[in-house]
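#struct-queue
[09:14] JT: dropping the first one here, sequence first, then the structure tokens:
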Amino acid sequence: MHQYKDKKRNILLIFIILFSLSSINSRLFMEKKEELYDLRYIEVIGLDDATNFEIEQNLNFLKNTNIFFIDREILRDQVQKYNFIENYNIFKSYPSKIIIKLEQTEFLARTIKNNEIFLIGSNGKFINIERFNNYENLPLIFGKFTADKFINLKKIINKSDLDYTTIKEIFFFPSGRIDVKNKKNILIKLPMQKFQESLNMANKIINNNNLKNNVIDLRIPNQLILSNE
């Protein structure tokens, strides 16, 4: 009877030890499993190497966070600090990597605000030039205007016969009227309406080899005035 009790006690003890080991292993497994999904790598692509690296560094605080719980809003806010980014995509590459693909806005023109030069992006934003160069060939925009108003004008120019790349300067007047000067210093004075038709006419006149004037005045309906400044 005594041996039976000892045997029973030993079996119970073995069971307790096995259960404890199983619990420990299970806990360690869960901990390792959770660590497996900790964010370890952040890759930013699409811009120049220096800017990609800068954004990666700005996001380092997210590392060792469970990738399932990383809020895309946080990633978006970091990306949107750079107003020269037009589009972005965020991919979670499980178990431990995030890839952010960025697309830089297209620079359409330059303008001067508070004695500083800014680029106008196709995303409708004014962008400081400090990160960029080789923008001198872009048209220079004068006057008070919004980026959206300029972009709408560019769409009209693109639909017209006038080549946008030949434009040197654009002037926005308080009245709403617009002048366009090309790289040959020919000034086109546009009417308040019918921009596309007027640009088509101006382009036809410019391409006339006999043009000896540098001002094409189309402000008065049904009239064409050629003069020199």
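[09:21] JT: and here's the second one, same format:
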Amino acid sequence: MDSRQLGLVACGWLVLVASGCGEAIDNFKNSEHQGAFILGRVRGIAFNLSLRNANTCLLDAQDQPTHCILSDGGGEFVFQDLPERSQQRVLLRNSGYWPLIGMINTARSVANSPVWEAAMMDNFVVDLQAKKVDRDFEPGTGLLYFEIQEPDGDEWKGAQNRQVFGEQLGTPYYFNDSNWLDKNRSSTASKGSAIFVNVKPGWYSIKLPDGCGPFWGFDLDERGLLPTYVAADTVTELNVRCR
């Protein structure tokens, strides 16, 4: 049985939808807790399936994984008892997907208990995207992926016609309305997505569009730039919201 086609086998039943049967977040919300926390739900981007047993770790200052846990049947995980207003890097790993790093400010993650919806990129999807722009991903480099959003009533939608710039990186590739990389685009389309490719591991400073700020990302530095970490053979995912 192929779980990508038929769903996830969880809680004793065949689940035909992507929600799985996660309980980690609800259990946490119903418990007594102190300090800051990160609530997450991880899925595979191609089939939109929740990813069970994704290895989820915090990274320390030396870029080493620590405090590792596994996601549950609904792809849910919880880190708790974190320092308040701390900035944490979360590393996700699962077979068949590029590892993913999320950059989380616990001050924003705690406000109204928002859930970080991490979307891991399937290996074959990444390869297909590379061919769209006639680029091969170089081993030992990483990807830096942006979702740029704007208000749509009480919800958020992709922000069009936005540009990002990275020191030493230049401009990224932008995705078209069908969410495919398009080497002829110079700004975001309706999905609001952009990506830097073949990024050497390390820290970078990113200039966001005017009126935009990090949501799932660290605070802007004193120059108004977004500090961003990229690891080898890994996707760093950032969510930017514009007013």
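[09:30] RK: nice, looked through the second one.
[09:31] RK: The chain has four helices and 19 strands.
[09:31] JT: good to know. Confidence is low (pLDDT under 50) at residues 1-19.
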